[in-house]
User: What shape does this take?
Amino acid sequence: MADKKNYYEVLGVDKKATPEEIKAAYRKLAIKYHPDRNQGDEVAAEKFKEVNEAHETLSDQQKRAAYDYELEHPGMGGFGGGFSGFGGGGFEDISDIFSSIFGGGFGGGAKAAQSAVGEDIQREMTLSFMDAAKGCKKSITYTRNEPCSACRGTGAKGGTALSTCGRCQGKGVIQQVQNTMFGRTIRQSPCPDCNGTGKIIKEKCPDCKGRGAQRKETTVSFDIPAGVDTNSYIRKRGYGQAAPNGGQAGDLIVVFRVEPHKIFTRDRFDLKIDLPISYKTAVLGGTVKVPTIDDTFDFTVPEGTQSGTVFTLRGKGIKSATRGTGNLILRVIVEIPTKISKDQKRELEKFDEEIEMKQYDKMRRYADNVEALYGKKPY
Assistant: This one.
């Protein structure tokens, strides 16, 4: 018992854990370390064995009581065996868990391998602001494990049929029975003869040497729809890594990063522009050329427009195939000269004196409020 791991620690539960808590912890760890998910991983296989041993003991009331006694009284006996690692309810539980995930409990190794899908490949692509807004056609070149065309990804010469592995009888896994002081335990691991596939290649494909895939440079072209933004992505089915045993290849996922623009910013499908205008145009009004993603148009600035005024122009934003067209949002910025001549200064002061205070609405209200509060005029 001194050399045995603490079953409560193995499952990550407290010694006072309820049967429901023990079962929940067991299911989570059994899925994590199951051989079908960790083919060839000896550490995971050992963890899987420990998890099942712990559950087998702690899920049985009598065995748990004997185990607890031995924990409290090491060397005094009371936890002497008479049970097997995967016997009884433990085996049924694990079959229930993996029948829906791996296609048939402990017999699902080969089935899972045969229906495996290759890994996805993710690449990043930088787009200009205009390409992202208007849509474009692009291509990307990358290296991947491409399914061998000679054997159609099976690894067998000419794509010939594979034979059933004699060692595992097509199951893809083998069982090893061990008798310990705590009883009999059963350990499962991928079959070393067929690497967990359940199939044996009689004659390897000469092109790929039986691997079923070849390392090749691949170029893929695709249409990018209008309106993509940073972190938008396109998935190209079947252009990822080749799958083992002739299964379906993974996907290529291209994630976009959109460069900023010198004039436009965007909020989803709306375009935003800071529109600088002169003091004269703000006071008297006028026409200004305003850009869109396709061209420019004439925009009439109303007389007396204040700096910071926002105009929303419907339907002049970014077009989307599924969400219509966004808006163009203009924020007017009145440019105030920072350097003027002496003559210009005199003319400006004369102009200001000639305009009555009542024409400055905001200044008049401000002056009235200050005077009412402190009895003093600010201007």
